[in-house]
Please model this.
Amino acid sequence: MKSFLTLQPVETVIGHIRTFPVLCAERIPLDAASGRRLADDFTAPADLPGFDRATVDGYAVRARDIFGAQEGNPALVECVGDCPMGAAPSVILHEGQTARILTGGMLPQGADCAVMVEYSRPAGGNLVELTRSQAPGDNVVLRDDDAATGARLLAAGRRLRPQDIGLLAAFGQTDVVVRRSPRVAIVSTGDEVVPIEETPPPGKVRDVNAHSIAALCREAGAQAVRAGLVRDDAGELEACLTRLADEYDVVVVSGGSSAGMRDHTVDVFTAVPGGEILTHGVALSPGKPFILGRAAAAGRTRCLMGLPGHTASALICARVFLLPLLHHLQGQTEPEIAPRVPARLTRSIASAQGRRDYLRVRLTPLEQTAPTGGDALCPLYEADPLTGTSGIITGMTAADGLLVCPENREGFNAGDMVMVELFQ
Model:
């Protein structure tokens, strides 16, 4: 029977992942860029909005002309015209003059603030009384308030969100340079695994992992394909992986990563051209049999990743290792921050020191939802640890998130305040 290499800490494996080369850049239309990662910093090519504009309906004025104005002592100014929407005003304000303006309208030359129409009243002819004083810049967005020319607005590696797409559109960027999406092939192994469209006979199970892992990859911006099932045959698996490594950036094998006599993955990884094992065994539960390797194909380094066959183990390993890999390949420079919420643990749980545990929990909202003072965390939820082995998929679907027990703890006690990583 094969044995595990020395169990590596999770952070050591993450360090290996960071050694893989980032994928090349490509230019794509802006409308196709949501969810993709920027290849380069984006700096403002011009001021935004590019002109001084009013944020209220009213009058554009010079602040010094209405200094001290109030209801009982209004400032009397002459209205010399209007500021048209969507065009530069033709009027120029001099001492004691004003111009009518609408929200979003461009301030005329000479004006430095705007007065709301509610603080104005006609005084006959072209004269207007303004009953509130304003400071320069009041009720105005200056030409570079949104962004100044040369300012770094989006960092390389950033995953573009809808608001980021809007920012790029504001500068007229019809296309954008992003990192290429990783191509991921997922292979399921085992004589006991059958396609999901088949009714499994006794002793066999449907191929759950390939579908769930592919969905996770697509959420991370990758192009994932299910590359089929491979029997418990080392030669067949080697031929499959050698072929896939020529075409895909990442090849994920589900099953066959343990140390049993029928688990061939670690041997096959080294048999693939340029194959090298970086990790075989992690101080992690569930997910101890995880394998990380690399191969050389088509002049590039490819990642080989072996996930446990048990469904919960495979999904948790994919969250802990495959997601960071996909983010890194797309140029991410800072670790992804999973959304977390404070919760109070409903019962005690044990863990082994020196191993990182990922515990599935279900959250129940509490009535108390705001801090009562001080720096202490206020629980928003109760966290109920879910039981079940690593081969049960319903334990993952019933969970709202994961509680991470770090290597330096031996578990948690009932009533402890914990932070739960939410599933996206």
Remarks:
- Helices lie at 10-17, 162-170, 208-219, 234-245, 265-271, 311-329, 394-397.
- The chain has seven helices and 28 strands.
- The longest helix spans residues 311-329.
- The domain at 53-141 is CATH 2.170.190.11 (Molybdopterin biosynthesis moeA protein; domain 3).
